[in-house]
Amino acid sequence: MNKILITGPVGSGKTTFAKQLSAQKKIPYYELDDLIWDRHPTGDKQHPVEESAKQLQAILAKETWIIEGTTTRDWIKPSIESAEIILLLLPPYYIRVYRIFSRYIKQVTNRESAHYKPSIQLLKKMFIWNHHYENKNIFELQKLLSLSNKKLIILKKSNAYSDYENIC
């Protein structure tokens, strides 16, 4: 597999898994967040949807890629169609909550870097996004998948990489 889409809720391990898979397969990985947000020291500004879609098309034109992210917006549909495999990471809810909080602590104590400025407001949003994923976002993802369901593999263990190795 040379074109891999990794998705799931906040704290599911998407970025960690993408980095591991990228190193193992020697395939570059891309974060959807970087296509959505224009990063600035003074604060992130959202790209217009057209710009995000244009950046996505440039990635999809490459021979190999791993794309990871949570979004269920229509502009990501070409990545779903182009992917050879779609990995949905769904570890238990309590694991995701722990990871969100742990990541926040590491970021505010400068033990982990972030593309964004960690704040209490963003931490609250992450908990909300995580909570709503299985009640809202997963259904939006299913709509986007439509005929691509055959490419979907759901990984439910807390270590997605080992789960993936056991399946593939």
Question: How does this structure look, described?
Answer:
The chain contains 7 helices and 7 strands, in the order E-H-E-H-E-E-H-E-H-E-H-H-E-H. With 168 residues, it is α/β, with parallel strands linked by helices. Helix 5 (93-108) crosses helix 6. The chain is globular.
Task: Name a few traits of the molecule.
7 helices, 15% strand, single chain, globular, alpha/beta, 168 residues
Number of E strands: 7
Q: Structural class of the secondary elements?
A: alpha/beta
Supply the number of helical segments: 7
Q: Report the sheet with the most strands, covering strand number, pairing sense and barrel closure.
A: 5 strands, parallel
Widest sheet: strand ordering: 2-5-1-6-7
Mean pLDDT: 89
The radius of gyration is 15 Å
How far the N terminus sits from the C terminus, by CA atoms, comes to 10 Å
Uncertain segments are: none
Helix-strand sequence: EHEHEEHEHEHHEH
Helix content: 40-55%
* Global outline: globular
In terms of DSSP E residues, the strand content is: 15-25%
